[in-house]
Specification:
The protein is mainly alpha-helical.
């Protein structure tokens, strides 16, 4: 127990110290990554963790978008409740959805940051091989991992772009709900919500594609790790 406490105390001290003295383009997150390496967490493990977090974030955003769509459908067509109450309910749901949508870009940035560090380290290690056969095999896996990582990042970027029109539509509905909910608004709302539904379906397709790319990348990174261990054993 004392060793665990001591380790976390060391981590906290290092983060605090490095955060103070870090300058230039290095961020606090870079410092945190470096600190994790000091306590034995490898870059590859960080990358795998970031990919898993990004995949979960995509799923969470998907769930929240569906929840928001259901909420808008229910509140906008409800004959109960005051106009101001409906507006506040939808505004709160929209803000919650916006925060979740913002997590996609954060995930993209995190995966890019860590993957660049992993690939730079991997590339540098290629020059350390004596066996040309093993070096060539490792270089091939590196290029495959880079390509798959790019596909994952591109898929997340596509999903992020598809989220924009949905959020714009939600914002419009929130504004509309502030002053215009009456018996004559039904047809307009029905048409608009059908349009939003189509935008959400397009977004969900991109999310599912990104999740599939994440699974492929995770499988590749785990397989690459196993191959490296096998090479060292041989």
């Amino acid at each position: 127990m004392k060793k665990i406490v001591a380790r976390f105390a060391l981590v906290y001290f290092l983060i605090s110290a490095l955060s103070v003295f870090t300058s230039g383009c290095q961020t606090v997150q870079n410092v945190w990554d470096s600190t994790k390496e000091i306590v034995g967490i490898q870059k590859r493990d960080m990358m795998i963790s970031e990919i898993k977090d990004a995949r979960q974030s995509l799923e969470d955003v998907k769930v929240q978008f569906q929840s928001a769509m259901d909420k808008f459908n229910t509140v906008l067509f409800s004959k109960e409740g005051k106009l101001e109450e409906k507006y506040k309910t939808l505004k709160a749901e929209n803000e919650k959805t916006g925060k979740k949508a913002g997590d996609i870009q954060k995930s993209i940035d995190s995966v890019i940051r860590v993957s660049e560090a992993v690939f730079a380290e991997w590339e540098a290690e290629l020059g350390q091989y004596y066996s040309e056969n093993l070096r060539s095999g490792s270089e091939k896996r590196l290029q495959e991992a880079k390509s798959q990582n790019n596909r994952f990042i591109n898929a997340m970027t596509q999903a992020n772009e598809k989220a924009g029109p949905v959020m714009a539509a939600f914002n419009d509905l929130v504004l509309y709900s502030r002053h215009n909910l009456n018996s004559e608004a039904g047809d307009s709302l029905t048409i608009e919500l059908e349009s939003v539904k189509g935008k959400i379906e397009a977004f969900f397709q991109e999310v599912d594609t990104a999740k599939a790319e994440a699974d492929s990348l995770l499988s590749m990174m785990a397989g690459s790790e196993a191959a490296v261990k096998s090479e060292k054993t041989d």
